[in-house]
């Protein structure tokens, strides 16, 4: 049973919400039978609640006569505080119900700039239109800050690909992505459905800067294929890689799904094989932290939006 503390005779006494409700209703109605009807209990139950409350507090709250109960001075002084407790409880219940039915709430999500640009521009407005009372806060952080944001509890969850150790995280993939070649449609390799890593020998390449997880995977895949990449530019953002590709400065090595979502008509994405490098985009939460109804609904809207956009790689159980 929910409780709050009152201090009486220098000792902490636990007073139940049932007793507070009974006190307030009896104070207003002044009759046990009428109070019992409103509380949906018997008059003897109301009498017991009041007597127990008075015993706990060590003070008389009502003077009893054959017909009515008259509040004492202590009851007059206590009433505003008792009413405030019930009002706060009603407001508490209202807020919880509103959060459950998405009338209000907040979604705070960490996401890297590339994934934010690719996945969220249509999903966020859709969600806002469906649930205008829920505030969406986007923390577009650098990849090396992504996991820290989630583990520290600064955000409700993240959308991305955690790099390095995943201890303390729960990872639910939503898009199966792969590392691929992003090039102009008139590039010599654009006509191929797939490209091998060995085909990149001597090809000017735009790569992510060292320290990014996708760069580490690309370097490892090229090394296993016996290829030394001819890197002409290193970038931190997908947007930079795309304008460089569009300008003819080279072909980029980037996650394919992200590039396809943001690239223009003149740019194509080709999967790199031998070896293939998979890299899922996931909903990432701190271990043991459950998502609020608003956060769960946001993820549903996001996945539905990706399917509506016919994004390749959206997982069936996402």
TrEMBL record:
Source superkingdom? Bacteria
- Per UniProt, which keywords does this protein have? DNA-binding, Transcription, Transcription regulation
**From the record, what ranges are coiled-coil?**
none
- Quote the PROSITE patterns the UniProt record gives: HTH_LYSR
Q: Name one Pfam family in it.
A: LysR_substrate
Q: Does the keyword Transcription regulation apply?
A: yes
**Domain HTH lysR-type stretches:** 15-72
Q: Name one GO molecular function term.
A: DNA binding
GO CC annotation terms, alphabetical: cytosol
Q: What the protein does?
A: NodD regulates the expression of the nodABCFE genes which encode other nodulation proteins. NodD is also a negative regulator of its own expression. Binds flavonoids as inducers.
Task: Say which family it is in.
Answer: Belongs to the LysR transcriptional regulatory family.
What is this protein identified as?
HTH lysR-type domain-containing protein
Lineage of producing organism: Bacteria, Pseudomonadati, Pseudomonadota, Alphaproteobacteria, Hyphomicrobiales
